[in-house]
Structure formats: structure tokens, C-alpha cells
Design brief:
disordered N terminus, mainly alpha, globular, 2 domains, Hypothetical Protein Yqey, Chain: A, domain1, Arc Repressor Mutant, subunit A, 161 residues
């Protein structure tokens, strides 16, 4: 990992830590609780990486992927609560989603996603459905947290199929 990756990693972690301190000072219990959940999840991932023989701290891409998973989990919970008529819990989940999304990069627009797909296909020389994995690997390495890969997969497949 180059120096740039370390600076970005510190930037995301640094922003989370600074927000945690601000929430403590402001005595914002709900924000503090959510930020503690985020830092605990990152620390758990760091520990898992160490036990797998990887680096001591996960890189920026893994932190962003972790935050993305946290958002998706809360979206699923909010849907379930909404179906169950638990509107107070729906709002709690949505508030946590907004807090977590503060640390994620802005999602790419539909045009930017399309351009990224075309560029990745050109770069990998992909010509058939067998090459989807190569294209997706390039997209995931460059656009973590900025595109929904479950939606992008079918787009790549359509272009190559």
C-alpha cells in the first residue's frame, strides 16, 4: 500500500474519531452510540485481519466496504420495521444511516457508472461473459463505496453478453 492509501485511511478513521470526540463534547447520546458502533466494527475487522496474517489495520477500501455493509443492514432493518408498523424504530435506523453515510464518498451518477464500466471493460480487454470477474475486480478496486456493485454486475453482464 502506498503513502496515498495510508493518508486516505487516516482521513476516514480520523474523521470518524473527530466526530466521536465532537459527539462526546456535545453530549449527543444517539450520535455517540452510532459512532461507537462504527469504531467497534472497524476494530473488529482490524483484529480479524491480524488473525488472518494480514496487516495490522485494514485499508481504506475495507473501511468503506464495512460502512457500506452497515448502511445496507440498517436499510434492511428499516424495511422490516416499516412492514411491522414500528415507525419509531424506522426513524432510528434512518438516522443511523445518515450518520454512517457522512463518512462514505458520494455515489457515482448513472452516467459516471456507465463511463466507469466502459473504461474497465476497455482496460481489461473483456470480450465475453467469462471476463465479468476481471471487470468487476477493476471496478471494486477503484469505486468502493461509490457504486452499488449488485446493480453494476447486471450492467456489466449486459455489455459483455
Amino acid at each position: 500500500m502506498g503513502r496515498t492509501g495510508q493518508v486516505q485511511q487516516m482521513d476516514v478513521r480520523g474523521r470518524i474519531e473527530a466526530s466521536l470526540k465532537d459527539a462526546m463534547r456535545a453530549r449527543d447520546a444517539h450520535r455517540l452510540s452510532t459512532l461507537r458502533l462504527i469504531t467497534a466494527a472497524i476494530k473488529d475487522r482490524d483484529i480479524a485481519a491480524r488473525s488472518d496474517g494480514e496487516q495490522a489495520r485494514v485499508d481504506d477500501a475495507e473501511v468503506l466496504a464495512l460502512l457500506g455493509r452497515m448502511v445496507r443492514q440498517r436499510q434492511e432493518s428499516a424495511r422490516a420495521y416499516e412492514e411491522g408498523g414500528r415507525l419509531e424504530l424506522v426513524e432510528k435506523e434512518r438516522a443511523e444511516i445518515r450518520m454512517i453515510e457522512e463518512f462514505l464518498p458520494r455515489p457515482l451518477s448513472a452516467d459516471q457508472v456507465e463511463a466507469a464500466i466502459v473504461a474497465a471493460i476497455g482496460e481489461t480487454g473483456a470480450t465475453s461473459l467469462r471476463d465479468i470477474g476481471k471487470v468487476m475486480a477493476v471496478l471494486k478496486s477503484r469505486h468502493v463505496g461509490r457504486m452499488d456493485f449488485s446493480a453494476v454486475g447486471p450492467q456489466v453482464k449486459a455489455r459483455l453478453g
